[in-house]
Write a structure and sequence with these properties.
There is one protein chain. The protein folds into 2 domains: 13-42, no CATH class; 64-118. It has 4 helices and no strands. The chain has helices at residues 22-25, 28-39, 64-86, 91-118. It starts with 21 loop residues before the first helix and ends with a helix.
């Protein structure tokens, strides 16, 4: 029976550890790349001077009137959502949601006034 430690005569493994044998040396670059991939995390590339918390950016060429109109429409949508959500609540929670809906509506009214002041008719 063959012993597990037996190797053919004249083979390199008689005097060389397995990691340094000729066939093994050919795999070193691949092994190093695999180890680096899993064990050395890369640092994320940062685009420009934006902080890591900045995901969404408003286009710099958008004019103030467009931004205000969009803000007004967003607040109007939030007001409707808060009002509909309040209708499914009872008691103190309903009052809290209606108060939030009123604050949203006041913000919408303020933005509408700014838009009116920008374009007097």
């Amino acid at each position: 029976m063959l012993d597990v430690n037996d190797s053919p005569d004249g083979s390199e493994t008689d005097s060389t550890p397995a990691y340094l044998s000729t066939p093994s040396r050919k795999l070193h670059p691949a092994v190093d790349r695999a180890l680096d991939f899993y064990l050395k995390p890369t640092t994320p590339r940062r685009a420009g001077a934006h902080s890591l918390g900045t995901i969404f950016v408003v286009a710099p060429d958008v004019d103030n009137e467009t931004l205000l109109a969009h803000a007004c429409e967003s607040l109007a949508s939030a007001s409707v959502m808060a009002s509909e959500f309040a209708s499914s609540l009872d008691g103190c929670n309903r009052n809290t949601m209606l108060a939030l809906q009123q604050v949203i509506m006041l913000g919408e009214l303020a933005i509408n006034r700014v838009l009116d002041n920008m374009n007097p008719s």
